[in-house]
Write a structure and sequence with these properties.
393 residues; 34% helix
């Protein structure tokens, strides 16, 4: 047991860190002690906000800082080398999704952390969300018979949020399959177990955003269940309409702001878009480091999900789980979350302090990435792709 707070070093002070920051600030078990980012304004802000050290490189931070764990929130293509650097320095790791851009890098990350005897948690993904976890518990209880089918849809403005150039290049880890599919795939795997095969199609329909903005996937599982996944980031229909206008973050959304994402980008250059992206990151002119949305907080979510068992349909919602049985329906409410993304922090802290192996470890992350890569391959080749690494091998 630690008799002190877990010290966190941050690799990358971009948008992912901005979204994870409320969890770090609200959790008394951790403290932010170090960061590495190439932007001088972000590093200066971090030093001011946390009286913490900043470093010129992730490798230097891992080697010289007092951090117990490194939160890897750098661009996707750097995840593998950053995790390996943390492991060499005997630091535990929380790495953002996607874990990496290919399975070989996933294996390198697993090998490095296991050799060093440190834990790696892959997240945040929405399989951490309490309503999804409660749905998984209800399925596992057997009360409603075996799971047979899952339907999942999410329609967002993802592709029209300000992006760096590489975020619009699939080869560099851009597009919705690398960035958004891990959420849905993680949820499906948590509910249904190891997957067996994938048949999918993807859409890239805007020449000005030349990467995948949509996908549809049919996943078969080893237990006989199957899942249908649909995602669109083209900023038209907003599926938060189906969750009572509670946004993915768990806070209320104003439906009258329809079209705002596309409107911001209308008529601006790629250079202007990059400046806007940087301004919204931690330390930028439009980002407020210590501010979180106001109003009642519900649980985070990732669109509409319905899990069909033989005797009931189960629907996780931002406030609990709706159960539609043979002869009636009922709602199982969950307490309002006090700390955003507390489930991520629980898994990280339990691993470091109590030596509890995390669920979302490197082998979990590798299996999720195999499914995501299979979505891309199936779309390219027009065929079903068999899966070989769903047990993390």
């Amino acid at each position: 047991m630690f008799d002190r707070k877990i010290k966190i070093g941050v690799a990358g002070l971009g948008r992912a860190f901005q979204l994870m920051l409320p969890a770090f600030l609200a959790d008394p078990r951790v403290s932010l002690v170090a960061a590495a980012d190439p932007r001088a304004e972000a590093s200066a802000r971090f030093r001011s906000d946390f009286a913490a050290e900043t470093f010129s490189s992730v490798e230097e931070m891992c080697a010289r800082s007092s951090a117990d764990a490194i939160y890897v929130a750098t661009p996707h293509q750097f995840h593998a080398e950053n995790v390996v650097a943390a492991a060499r320095a005997k630091k535990h790791v929380l790495v953002e999704k996607p874990m990496a851009l290919d399975l070989e890098d996933c294996r390198r990350m697993i090998e490095a952390t296991e050799r060093a005897g440190v834990f790696m948690v892959v997240g945040h993904s929405h399989s951490f969300d309490a309503p999804v976890r409660r749905t998984a518990e209800l399925i596992a209880s057997g009360e409603f018979g075996p799971l047979r089918m899952i339907g999942a849809i999410n329609y967002t403005d993802f592709l029209y949020r300000p992006r760096r150039p590489e975020e619009l290049s699939t080869e560099s880890g851009g597009g919705v399959v690398f960035n958004q599919a891990p959420h849905q795939v993680d949820v499906m795997r948590l509910l249904a177990g190891p997957a067996r095969s994938v048949r999918a199609a993807t859409g890239a329909w805007d020449p000005g955003r030349p990467t995948e903005g949509a996908y549809g996937a049919f996943i078969s599982f080893e237990n006989g269940a199957f899942a249908s996944l649909s995602y669109s980031g083209y900023a038209h229909f907003d599926s938060d309409e189906l969750t009572g206008w509670i946004a993915e973050s768990g806070y209320a959304k104003d439906p009258e702001k329809y079209g705002a994402a596309r409107a911001v980008l209308r008529g601006i250059s790629a250079a202007d878009e990059l400046e806007l992206k940087l301004a919204r990151n931690y330390g930028g002119a439009e980002a407020t480091a210590m501010q979180t949305p106001s109003g009642p907080r519900a649980h985070q979510h990732f669109g509409l999900i319905v899990a069909s068992c033989e005797q009931a349909d189960l629907k996780p919602t931002p406030k609990g789980v709706m159960i539609y049985g043979d002869f009636g329906r009922r709602f199982e409410a969950l307490p309002e979350p006090k700390v955003p993304r507390v489930e991520v922090m629980d898994e990280l802290c339990d691993a470091i302090v109590r030596r509890h192996p995390p669920l979302h470890d490197g082998r979990w992350g590798l299996a999720t990435m195999e499914v995501c890569l299979a979505i891309l391959q199936s779309s390219r080749e027009g065929r079903e792709i068999g899966l070989k690494h769903q047990r993390g091998n």
